[in-house]
Specification:
Helix content is 87%, strand content 0%. α1 runs antiparallel to α3. The longest helix has 37 residues.
């Protein structure tokens, strides 16, 4: 990532970093909410649905920390450029 050239780009980068970080934090919460709402259906014996949900959970849980890390790096870079 390259630092922003002016304050407008720094402010836009702060907004983008905030949104990416919040999205990364929301992914696991949405998955847990979906799991709790469909708990009885999953226990009913539909094993294809369980495998699909498990594969989505693994993907989300691996992708979410990357999004959070990227968002925090973007925030740090743009905040330091905005202060200058």
């Amino acid at each position: 990532m390259e630092p922003p050239k002016d304050k407008e780009e720094a402010l836009a980068g702060l907004l983008n970093g905030t949104m990416v970080t919040l999205l990364g934090c929301a992914f696991p919460a949405v998955f847990i909410l979906a799991l709790t709402r469909n708990w009885r259906d999953l226990l009913g014996g539909d094993f294809s649905a369980i495998s699909t949900d498990a594969s989505l959970a693994v993907g989300i849980l691996l992708f979410s920390p990357w999004l959070i890390r990227f968002g925090l790096r973007t925030l740090r870079l743009n905040w330091s450029a905005f202060q200058r």
